[in-house]
Amino acid sequence: MPITILGCGISGLSCGVKLQEAGYTDIRIISRTLPPHTTSDVAGGLWFPYKAEPISRILGWSKATFQEMMLLRSHPEAGITMTRFFQLLPHKASNDAWWSSAVEVYRPLAEKEILAEFPYLPQGRFPSGFYAEVPIAEPHKHLPYLMNRFREQGGSIEVGVVERFADISAKNTVIVNCTGIEAKKLVGDESVFPIRGQIMVVKNTGISRSITIEAADEHSEHATYTIARSEDVIMGGVAMVGNWETSVDETTVSGIIARCAAIEPALANPTIIQHKAGLRPGRTEIRLEREKLPDGCAVIHNYGHGGSGYTVNWGCADEVVSLVKSL
Questions:
Q1: How many separate domains does the chain show?
Q2: CA distance 87 to 214
Q3: Which one of 115, 123, 128, 285 is least enclosed by Cβ atoms within 10 Å?
C-alpha cells in the first residue's frame, strides 16, 4: 500500500516512523520545506499541552508522547533532555493540572514553595502553581534524527508542493495530511488559523529549570516562558491569534527579555544566538480523522496541533497507524 505523507515537521516525521514500525514499507514524505526550515524548527520542543483542543483527546495523545520521549532518551542522537518544569499561576488552583496524569513526576505548588524556589518574586503574584519533570525534544537534533531514521528504514523525502490531493491520489493509496497551517488552503479548512510565535535562542549559562506563566487574561498575546535546553535557553514569547507575520519583530524582543528576566534574573542580559518567528497551526480542535476521496484514495488528516506539536505527536501518530490499519 503506497503511503504519501504531506509535511516534514514533527507530525509528518512521527507518522512516517510509526507507519514503518507497523510494517508499511512504501512511504514517501513530500513537503514544501524541510528541516531546519519548518515551523517545527521554531518550536522550543518542550512537552507541555498548549493552545490546542479538545482536552479529552489531547490527554491520551500527550501521555503516549511522554512515554515515547522517555524511551528515546536512550538514544543520545535523538536530542531528548529532561527539565524541571514550573507552571506559575496568577490565582489559587482549585484542582491539579488537567495534564498531570500524563507525567511521572508531578506535584501542585503552594505559594510558600514558589517563593522558596523564586525568592525574588513579590508575595501574592503567583499564589499557586504546578511542578513536573518533563522531556524536551531539541528540534535542531531531534528532527534530523527522525529524518535519518525514516530514510534508513527505506522511506524517501522530497521537496515539493501539492496543491490538491487529486495530483497524487489514486485507488488503494493513502495520503497522510500533516500540512499544519497550510491545510487551510489545501483542504479549504476555515477552522485553521495562525497563532504567531516569536522566541529568542540565548546561551545557557547554567539554567536547569523551565518556566511558563499562565496569563491572567486568557486572550493575552503575551506568552511568557523559558525553556532550558542542553546548550541554550528559549525565551518567549507571543501568541498572536490570527497574525500571519513570520518576520521577527524587533520591538517584541525587549518585552520578552523584561518578562523572562522577571522570573529568571540570569536572563536579564542574555547572549543572543538567534531570533525566530513562526506560525503555530491553530484550529478550533485538532483534526485527526479519515476521509475517502472520490477516486478511492484514503486521506488521514492530522493537523491543527496549535502549540502542542511536540506534546501530542507520537500519540497522534499511533492513531494515524490505527486508521491506516482499519482501511
A1: 1
A2: 7
A3: 123
Judge if pTM exceeds 0.90: yes
pLDDT tens digit string along 159-209?
999 999 999 998 889 999 999 999 999 999 999 999 999 999 999 999 999
Q: Mapping DSSP to helix (H, G, I), strand (E, B) and coil, where does residue 76 land?
A: helix
Number of H helices, E strands in the chain: 8, 15
The CATH code of the domain that includes 297 is: 3.40.50.720
Whether the Cβ atoms of residue 175 and residue 300 lie closer than 8 Å to each other = yes
Residue-range definition of the domain harbouring residue 104: 3-325
Model pLDDT for residues 264-323, shown as the tens digit of each residue: 999 999 999 999 999 999 999 999 999 999 999 999 999 999 999 999 999 999 999 999
CA separation for the pair 72, 20 (Å, rounded): 16
Instruction: Order the strands of the 298-303 sheet from edge to edge.
Output: 156-159, 27-31, 3-6, 174-177, 298-303, 287-292
